TrEMBL record:
It comes from Chitiniphilus eburneus. InterPro entries: KH_dom-like_a/b (IPR015946), OsmC/Ohr_fam (IPR003718), OsmC/Ohrsf (IPR036102). This is OsmC family protein. It comes from the Bacteria. Pfam families: OsmC. PANTHER family: PROTEIN YHFA (PTHR34352). Gene3D superfamilies: 2.20.25.10, 3.30.300.20. Signal peptide: none annotated.
């Protein structure tokens, strides 16, 4: 896996993935940026949410669960001193489907957290990671 990052100006960077996608990252105006894109550490959280959500949906579908949607809200805290690593991360999954069983969803989240999601497992080396979920019945 490869990525390329190019400095654009001030504190703006263009990241390009090997798969052909690009994301503009930028800093806040008070830091010299123009707020044109997410901060690099926000990208870390977004990537972690994407990794975990991919796993949860895949595991649920493999178990023949009728999952229709999944939204993850991530809340994180960082250390006050440099390096300002994440110290606490909470992922809250809202899973929508038909006749989903709480134990199915809980199992999928646990498997992602403990076995499959390389992003959250890596971040777990410095941060306390917790998970929560709710199930919404699809119409």
């Amino acid at each position: 896996m490869k990525v390329r990052l190019k400095w654009v100006e001030e504190v703006s960077f263009l990241a390009q993935s090997e798969s052909g996608h690009a994301v503009l990252m930028d800093g806040p105006p008070e830091g010299g940026g123009r707020n044109l894109g997410p901060r690099p550490m926000e990208m870390v959280l977004m990537g972690t949410a994407g990794c975990a959500t991919y796993d949860v949906i895949h595991i649920l579908r493999k178990g023949r669960a009728d999952v229709r949607d999944c939204v993850v809200n991530v809340d994180a805290e960082r250390a006050a001193e440099d390096p300002k690593v994440f110290t606490r991360i909470h992922l809250h999954f809202t899973v929508t489907g038909r006749a989903l069983k709480p134990e199915q969803v809980e199992r999928a989240i646990k498997l992602s957290a403990e076995k499959y999601c390389s992003a959250s497992i890596m971040l777990g080396k410095t941060a306390e990671i917790t998970h929560g979920f709710e199930i919404v019945e699809a119409a």
